[in-house]
Amino acid sequence: MPTTASRARTVKSAARTPTSSARKPSTQPVQAKRTAIAKAKAVAPDVAARIGSTPATKFRGDADIFGRLVQDHDRHRALLAMVAQTSGKSTERQKLFKELTLELKSHAAAEEQALWSSVMRNPKTTDDARHAVSEHKEIDEMLADLAARDMASPAWLRRFTALRDEYLHHIREEEQEQFVAAQKHLSASDLRYMKQVFNRRKQEEKATTKIDKKIKLKD
């Protein structure tokens, strides 16, 4: 039977030893990012995906809500970086641009239904929702414009760079400002709705979305 002194030593030792979760932060966000990049890389395994760091968002670790959206964003960051590594009308550029277009369009449609439709109803966050949806439309037009142009031309890469910069600005704004504001006002039922709707809607959209080709911007 342990003595009082030995029990005291055991308690003291346990107090000094952190639990595994206290010693090391959750790897969920890191794994989510790796999974997102791997999905992008599967399209063109030989093309580098240098996306850099992901803008910090405290909702990143919630795999079912905002973390799910950020995971898609990382996939998009990777695809954008990979397209920029390609040249001319290479098979890699064509495949990556097609995947990027389907990803951005299906993500936007699902995000609008799952998140922004709820956010739009609250006067305190209506402006954020309208701003996000407006940028979705602008990005969609830029994609259609690129799809209608010659991939081998220097102007195509210049326009693609403009699209990349616009989209990176858009998702950085969502992650650092709009998601933070939305979280404060979404109800428990709104969050349940978002979990139920986003993945299903995105899959449906990606399976049926067509790539539009329409020049919108002047040289």
SSE topology sketch:
Blueprint: H1 4-16, H2 20-23, H3 28-41, H4 66-84, H5 91-120, H6 126-147, H7 154-185, H8 188-208
Question: In short, what is this structure?
Answer:
By secondary structure, the protein is an all-alpha fold. It has helices spanning 4-16, 20-23, 28-41, 66-84, 91-120, 126-147, 154-185, 188-208.
How would you describe this protein?
Residues 68-179 form the Hemerythrin-like domain. It holds the Pfam family Hemerythrin. The protein is an all-alpha fold. It has one domain (27-208): Four Helix Bundle (Hemerythrin (Met), subunit A), CATH 1.20.120. Helix content is 71%, strand content 0%. It has helices at residues 4-16, 20-23, 28-41, 66-84, 91-120, 126-147, 154-185, 188-208. The protein is globular.
Broad shape: globular
> Treating each run of at least 4 consecutive H or I residues as one helix, how many helices?
8
The span between the termini is: 87 Å
From the 3D structure, determine the CATH topology. Answer: Four Helix Bundle (Hemerythrin (Met), subunit A)
Provide the residue-averaged pLDDT: 86
Note the beta-strand portion.
under 5%
Helix and strand content put the structural class at: mainly alpha
List low-confidence stretches.
10-25
Helix content: over 70%
CATH class value: Mainly Alpha
The total number of structural domains is 1
Give the tags:
219 residues; Four Helix Bundle (Hemerythrin (Met), subunit A); mainly alpha; 8 helices
